[in-house]
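Before the break, one more example. Copy the sequence into your notebook; we will annotate it together after we see the structure.
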Amino acid sequence: MVQKADKIWFDGKLVPWDEAQVHVLTHTLHYGVGVFEGIRSYVTADGGSAVFRLEEHVDRLFLSAKINEMVIPFSREEICAAIVDTLVANKMAEAYIRPLSFIGAGVMGVFPGNNPIQTIIATWPWGAYLGAEALEKGIRVKTSTFTRHHVNIMMTKSKTCGNYVNSVLAKREALAEGYNEALMLDTEGYVSEATGENIFLVRNGVIKTPPLGSILAGITREAIMLLADDLGYTVVEDRFTRDELYSADEAFFSGTAAEVTPIREVDRRIIGQGCRGPVTGALQEAYFKVLHGENPKYGKWLTRYSVSGS
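Here is what the structure looks like once it is written out:
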């Protein structure tokens, strides 16, 4: 269950959690055209707090809105400030952050007309998305029977609410069969991504990840690629198949929620030694140092704030 906070930012105002409500005829509830982001803030080594890549996430929120022909009635700067204000109001030194813009109630039918575009920001505590042990021991993954979206069927570069029906179906299937996560293939049968994460494999010291075709351009994905370069690894963006993944020395997922999660098994095939490998471990360590403000090179990725007095 999501742990309630005191406030949710709703269309420019901080309102009590239980009062952040919408009408049952809200257009997005029926037709799925809404856009959202997943963002995290962390306690830093100096005892403060920081949101990771806030501006990049908000930029992508507005890009998603543009793709879906939605005009968010707030500026990027206002949304960034509202996210920090919500964290402070909820006295959260560390949190998961969910901005969501959606089409409100008004006309019904597929065409939303002039229905208002509404925006909320919610924050809540959220630990390791795939389980606390997953970051060390890795997870079991199943190739889904559901295919990832074709680029001309859904807009794959946007975080559109309706896109995630595909993810929900795949995730339910994987969990029902005893796995932790689902692996999605694209319409040509190549590895695409997971239900909410990008994927990397490691073989002979080279890191490979699918190119920006059917996949979401993950903000954490980009960060991992930059950190891998800093550590001296070669990173290749190229298509790969399931059997290449089965043959990998290591594999891992990346994402705001999943952070850097090792994959120990895919479709009953053990990956590498069946545990977190050395490359994955090095990238995890580098990533968490950035999140906690211990790598000054990437201090620009952190938006600092304080909840002193909480």
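The first helix runs from residue 27 to 31. The longest strand covers residues 95-103. Try to locate both features in your own notes.
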